[in-house]
Write a structure and sequence with these properties.
- The radius of gyration is 25 Å and the shape is elongated.
- The longest helix is centred in the last third of the chain and has 52 residues.
- A two-stranded antiparallel ribbon has the order 1-2.
- β1 and β2 form a beta hairpin.
- α1 crosses α2.
- It contains two helices and two strands.
- The chain is an alpha+beta fold and 103 residues long.
Length: 103
């Protein structure tokens, strides 16, 4: 069982105390850093200063990225299934030819 580690994550000038698994600490801190960098980017590009607005923009971007990844994954799965079906057809044809050659 993992030990929980108390940490405080600072996002958009607010502190969020939490307990996380030790193995997740570095990744969670990196995520917090990435969020803050992205919020700063939005602030610089769009001139938005309200933290709630910045977080909303970030939420929209994250949701769009998730949807894009989901679509890419589905397309990849479709391609893989298509390739598997093609391979099954080739194996079936090869087996049929082998059976005919044996007879």
């Amino acid at each position: 069982m993992s030990q929980k580690l108390p940490i405080t994550l600072r996002i958009a000038e607010r502190s969020y105390p939490m307990e996380v698994d030790r193995e997740d600490e570095a990744r969670l801190r990196a995520v917090g850093k990435k969020i803050n960098q992205q919020l700063k980017h939005y602030k610089d590009v769009y001139g938005v200063t309200d933290s709630q607005d910045l977080l909303a923009i970030y939420a929209v971007d994250c949701s769009m990225e998730k949807e894009n990844l989901k679509e890419a994954l589905e397309a990849c799965e479709d391609l893989i299934l298509s390739k598997i079906n093609s391979l099954e057809e080739i194996v079936d044809l090869t087996l049929q030819r082998s059976e005919k050659a044996i007879r």
